Amino acid sequence: MPEGTAKLVSKRPGRLPESPVPPIPAIDPSDHLASTLYSVHRTKLSTHRTELSEHRTSLSEYRTDLSTHRTDLSEDRTEMSTRRTGMSFQRTRMSADRTLMSVIRTSLSLIGFGFTIFQFFQKLRDANQLTSAHSARNFGLALVTLGIVMLVMGIIYHLVFMVELRRQRKAMVAAGLVHGESKFPPSMTLITALILLLIGVFAVVSMVFRVGPFG
């Protein structure tokens, strides 16, 4: 049945008019016409049974049409359930991306704040405004390192989760439980996290060895 269409169900047959059973004729057994009258009575009974049988046949056909219609509706519901399950995989994937974005925001805050503290007190010391800034610089370096570690853990968690999600999706597609029409495109959030990780590593190298683009 084409998607989005419903099969028309045949109209229920009307109630059979309640025709009484032909009465048994009062016949004198000694009358030579008795057998003829009994034969006519049997014919009327046979006609009555035939009418009942035809009505039962019409009802049976109606029940068959209803059953076919219910089967079609069940197939539609199964198809909709399959598509909803496929869409739930996409929603789960986007939820994982949002979780990684939260990790990126927190890591970026730690890296940026730590690098700012490190550079601020380093410039004050270079300008002879402070005699010692080791504790502040170490605190800034610790924040940057914490941001990098948190970002690495978030990336690893995201990769492990996505690998398992793809494995489950492939298994359900192979079992025919979901459609495999929609693909999982590359995650821009993951690419951004990797770029931020490189920036954080460069920042730590510049802070420790005073080399690189941030030295």
Characterization of the model:
The chain has 215 residues and is mainly alpha-helical. The protein has a domain at 81-209. 73% of the residues lie in helices and 0% in strands. Helix 1 (34-126) packs antiparallel against helix 2. It is rod-shaped. The two termini are 69 Å apart.
Shape verdict: rod-shaped
Helical percentage: over 70%
Could you report the average pLDDT, rounded to the nearest whole number? 80
List the total number of helices. Answer: 3
Describe the main β-sheet briefly.
none
Walk me through the topology.
Elements: H1 34-126, H2 134-174, H3 188-209
Helix pairs in contact: 1-2, 1-3, 2-3
In short:
By secondary structure, the chain is mostly helical.
Features:
215 residues, 0% strand, disordered N terminus, mainly alpha
